[in-house]
């Protein structure tokens, strides 16, 4: 009996130590993964290029001298983020806040916590009760016993101890269909007071639409030996665009139709969003990562790389589209083609806005894309990038994936020029800036995502 026990113990030892590896070094396999180009993005293969102004532009050379730099591969939005795409962010934030308030009121009304109502219409505010804490859900991690994706589960997604929101029940918007008084109370506090309403419309208080997220200053943490918790930052950002920029940006000018309709009316859904600050653009990037990861985790797949704003070098490299030392994304040096048609939306001919067949912005997929299939890298709206503006930054930044972003410097670079700019600002090497908390009627943004490949483009357009 003792001999049999020894043999069993030996087999158990070999099985636990060697497993199916037969004692060989085979490595640890990660989750199933394959490279996937995100919807609406194009691949920008990495490579080297000459960044900065040509020596003919003596004024520009003072803050953008030529320098050979290299960037890694990445995916980039083919167009600027549109009103329709940004509305998805606004609506998700709005609905999250409403469900949070409803769940809190359900607790006060005696609904407590539990599974809430089934999918469909609510019969009382209790149907919006929290679905239990995250700790009731196998630790709240990926693969937990829930039919909700992580971006739907929590009232504040960065807090794993938070209660889970109930997304199974549809929100009720028609006042005559509100199920009970508690629901009325919650919805009423989200709208502007009656004295601030006019034209028969009752509008929501968009100042309540705030997105909360956390991030870590990895660069500062990597250079410190301290506890990394000291470098984790919390942000809470109002997400609704500042529609008043159409009035505030232009004195003695009638732009009320743009103020009233540009973000609200479906006619402008495919136009680039404006009135968004650099801080709001950063919050959008975090939410887009959260949204995509929610789906991936629900399928048991590898998380995606984060969406982010491009660095100044990445933006200029992408805008050039593989053309070395070109003035514009289409080459240059002129803003017209051989038939005399303007190639971008800007302010031509000493202020003749209509000469390029557009008065303000145009749809995001207007004009011809560059060789990387990127639309309106020059003109239409200028674009926020991740970098801080420093006139001397080209003199000291790295030649490999250069980026200068000083958290203390609130001047953030904008690139590409806009519908109200002269041709000089459309040049791919021209630099401008705006303050991070500012919003303008002529500044939008597009996002990028790091690519897993180290393939490079030797300045050849993609086939």
TrEMBL record:
The keyword Ligase does not apply. Residues 40-448 form the Sulfatase-modifying factor enzyme-like domain. Residues 1-17 form the signal peptide. It comes from the Bacteria. Keywords: Lipoprotein, Signal. InterPro entries: CTDL_fold, Glid_motil-assoc_lipo_GldK, Sulfatase_Mod_Factor_Kinase, SUMF_dom, SUMF_sf. It holds the Pfam family FGE-sulfatase. PANTHER family: FORMYLGLYCINE-GENERATING ENZYME, SULFATASE MODIFYING FACTOR 1, 2. This is Gliding motility lipoprotein GldK. The gene is gldK.
């Amino acid at each position: 009996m003792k001999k049999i026990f020894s043999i069993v113990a030996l087999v158990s030892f070999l099985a636990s130590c060697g497993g199916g590896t037969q004692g060989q070094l085979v490595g640890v396999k990660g989750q199933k993964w394959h490279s996937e180009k995100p919807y609406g993005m194009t691949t920008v293969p990495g490579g080297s290029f000459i960044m900065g102004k040509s020596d003919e532009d003596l004024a520009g050379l003072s803050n953008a001298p030529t320098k050979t730099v290299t960037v890694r591969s990445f995916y980039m939005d083919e167009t600027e983020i549109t009103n329709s795409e940004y509305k998805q962010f606004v609506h998700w934030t709005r609905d999250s806040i409403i469900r949070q308030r409803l769940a809190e009121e359900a607790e006060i009304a005696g609904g407590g916590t539990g599974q809430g109502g089934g999918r469909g219409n609510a019969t009382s505010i209790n149907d919006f009760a929290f679905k239990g804490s995250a700790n009731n859900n196998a630790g709240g991690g990926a693969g937990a016993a829930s039919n909700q994706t992580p971006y739907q589960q929590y009232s504040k997604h960065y807090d794993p101890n938070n209660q889970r929101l109930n997304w199974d029940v549809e929100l009720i918007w028609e006042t005559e269909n509100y199920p009970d008084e508690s629901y009325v109370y919650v919805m009423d506090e989200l709208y502007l007071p009656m004295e601030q309403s006019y034209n028969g419309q009752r509008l929501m208080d968009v100042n309540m639409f705030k997105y909360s997220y956390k991030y870590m200053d990895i660069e500062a943490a990597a250079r410190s030996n301290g506890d990394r918790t000291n470098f984790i930052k919390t942000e809470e950002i109002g997400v609704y665009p500042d529609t008043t920029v159409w009035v505030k940006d232009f004195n003695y000018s009638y732009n009320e139709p743009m103020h009233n309709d540009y973000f609200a009316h479906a006619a402008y859904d495919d136009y680039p969003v404006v009135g968004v600050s650099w801080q709001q653009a950063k919050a959008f990037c975090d939410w887009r990562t959260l949204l995509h990861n929610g789906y991936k985790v629900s399928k048991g797949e590898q998380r995606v790389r984060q969406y982010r704003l491009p660095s100044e070098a990445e933006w200029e490299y992408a805008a050039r589209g593989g053309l070395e030392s070109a003035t514009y994304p289409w080459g240059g040096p002129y803003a017209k083609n051989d038939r005399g048609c303007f190639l971008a939306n800007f302010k031509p001919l000493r202020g003749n806005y209509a000469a390029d067949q557009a008065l303000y912005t145009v749809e995001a997929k207007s004009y011809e894309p560059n060789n990387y299939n990127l639309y309106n890298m020059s003109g239409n709206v200028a674009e926020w990038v991740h970098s801080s503006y420093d006139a001397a930054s080209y003199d000291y930044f790295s030649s490999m994936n250069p980026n200068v972003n000083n958290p203390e410097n609130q001047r953030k670079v904008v690139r590409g020029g806009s519908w109200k700019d002269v041709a000089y600002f459309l040049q791919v090497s021209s630099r401008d800036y705006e303050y991070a908390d500012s919003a303008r009627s002529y500044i939008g943004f597009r996002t990028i995502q790091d690519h897993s490949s180290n393939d490079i483009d030797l300045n050849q357009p993609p086939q």
